[in-house]
Amino acid sequence: VNGTSGNLRDGRVRQAMAMAISRQAIARALLAPLGIKAEPLGNHIFMSNQEGYLDNSGSVGAYNPEGAKQLLDAAGWKMEGDVRRKDGKPLEIVAIIPSAVNTSKQETELMQNMLAQVGIRLLINTVPSPDFFEKYIRPGQFDITVFSWIGTSYPISSARSIYATPTKGADGQMDIQQNYSRVGDPEIDRLFDEANAELDRTKAVEMANRLDAKIWEIVHSLTLYQRPEIVVTRSNLVNFGAFGFADWVYEDIGWAK
Question: What is the mean pLDDT of residues 131-141?
């Protein structure tokens, strides 16, 4: 969610947008055909199968279209016909997605329908895949977008560059690192620094969950679902498959006799 873009500069609009999107419905649409239990992911730092995972999505991550409508009313966006308007301008949000990525198309079309029910008009702009990051996401030429972050075995340290507050470099340009949302919070930065310096695993995990709750609060991004790793092998191949975060033990891989 580009928090510096047009209508999304207002945190209330970002929160309303989040509450109007059923992450459960999106997870069901994308995962159920694979035979995977469809559950939305409630954490930006930990995957659901990692130690320390908690669902910190709170009220922002809960599907609540009526609450979304109330937030938009309070922010001055009033329904006029089938769309909300403020100072005569419609509440429109542009989703940039890459061509040839069917999941992105499915997800944004589902969001388009959900957002329309609270008076937000979502426009979907499909761009050439080679231009997606270089010409749109990194320069901030989008309102919202969808893509995947890959979970790692070191979730706290590897996530900092995604959520750290952008800073101005010596050349006067904003250094966003991987924070394409371009929003942050001093508390998030402080907790990342403290968690990465903390040697007590329990304390580090607690800090990580506190900062994750803050990431939800400012609506930096919405975690939709955890994409499964699916591997197909012959039935007599043993000790090989979807390893997740585990290491491969090559000498244990082989054919059953």
Answer: 97
